[in-house]
Amino acid sequence: MLRISHLSKSFGSNQVIKDLSIDIRQGDVTVLLGPSGCGKTTLLRCIDFLERAESGTLSFADGGAVEFATAAKKEIARCRRRFGFVFQNHNLFSNKTALENVTEGLIVARRIPKPEAVAIGREALARVGLANREDYYPNQLSGGQQQRVGIARAIAAKPDVILLDEPTSALDPELTGEVLDVMKALAEDGVTMLAVTHEMTFAQDVAKRIVFMDGGVIIEDSTPRAFFAKPREERARQFLKRLLPNYGEYTI
Amino acid sequence: MSFDLDFFARAARAVLPGIPLTLLVVAFSLAVALPLGFLTAVARAKRVRALSPALAFLVSLMRGTPMIVQIYVIYNALPLMLSAFFRKAGIGVNVFDVDPLLYALFLFSLNTTATLSEVFRSALSTVGAGQMEAALTCGLSEAQAYVRIVVPQMMRAASAPLCNAAVELLKNSSLVFYMGVRDLMGIIKTEAGIGYNYFEGYALALVIYLILCFGVQGIFRLVERRAKRGRAAQAA
After folding, report:
1. Considering the entire predicted model, what is its pTM?
2. Does domain B5-235 have CATH number 3.10.129.10?
3. Which residues of A touch B143 (CB under 8 A)?
4. Which of B43, B63, B140, B163, by CA, is between 20 and 30 Å from A75?
5. What residue ranges do the domains of chain B occupy?
6. Running DSSP on this structure, what letter comes out for residue A158?
7. B129 touches chain A (CB under 8 A)
8. Distance between CA atoms of residues B76 and B70, nearest Å
9. Separation CA A220–CA A186 (nearest Å)
């Protein structure tokens, strides 16, 4: 559905992503894993043009391709419509209600008539279980609710792919569950997702594909089953050992 | 020493026509400085090459020198330079015929732009970068994001210093007298000079400026209340 090829990105002299290529297939729930600083977040941000990559191409299965480095404003806007982005700290518009947060992009950017946009917005909020909170401002919602509004905002326009940048990392532990449940429900509905997360249970149970990155390159791309049972790469094994205390102690 | 109430009443009537002129200087400067000051702040925040340092220098120039010095420079030096330039360029305009009010409006607009650009610059920094990024990912253009998301949030931090700046501007507008503009201060000075009633004259100026300042503050309070209505302050 979408292909990223030969993407490179540096911050100053530090090359964070090195000639990375990845295909995203329709209905994929891909979890990006890797030690911190390995370029996962930067990859997501480059895909949605929040960072300018130095090189690389973004191409879509239905035709059309753009160069990350040289894409014009209009092309960027066109690409962004194909993505929804969920931020680590949700970044809800603090001067807008939950419903307005969801409808803002629909009305202003996609020029959907307001009544229609409101209907779409309500449906999106219902999907994340917040139908009864549409008139609340972000600061009147809990962290988990805020992030669910953030997800509703990302899915409302039915983009091709939802990019999620550590959607639960900034939440209190007891609030991560509600957000993960929403993500799981979306996965079951066939929504294509590319998520950076440290939630190993989500990666194991919900992901269809695990992409393990280190040092700005993909070093393993496999199913969760294969990855968690026996990663091919030593670096991946080290990573799992750090994250899953009991990892590797039993063999079946 | 006695307070000449008759003079006070007479001068108060004489000064009334000067008030609109004072308000014109304030309103005109604000009307120019609000958009220009905002654009200056944005340009500086975005670190536009060459433009940002130039703007930074201009802002420092306007804010780092006394208003009275700027007035003398603009009012004395600028016409001289302009007339020399016009003569060379063969433009038949006699700059010494130009209404000094125009110089005053020019200088006060410039000065207020510098002040407001600093107000907006600090107010912009209270809005997290994530708000702009979220707006972009929702498909908004940068301009739309500023108008619909960033500016409304910025105004929470900007409203109090904006009011301050407006009051400051109102008070400083009394300096246009030094440019030969007969604003209310100018009228009072002339009236007082006739019978040597300076004490009454300045007392009158004090009262009028106080009332005008209350008026400005009142307007800001009204606008602020309307903006705040039904909107709880952002928690984080």
Report:
1. 0.84
2. no
3. none
4. B43
5. 5-235
6. -
7. no
8. 10
9. 25
